[in-house]
Amino acid sequence: MIESDEFVKSLQHMGCNFFTGVPDTILGGIIAYLMEQRLYTPAVREDEAVAMASGAYLAGRIPVVLMQNSGLGNSLNVLASLNLIYRIPCLLIISWRGFQGKDAPEHLVIGQTLPQLLETLKIPYRTLSLETLTEDFSWTARTFMDQRIPVALLLKKGLVKTVQP
Question: Please, is 54 exposed, middle or buried when counting C-beta atoms within 10 Å of its C-beta (0-12, 13-18, 19+)?
Answer without folding.
Answer: buried
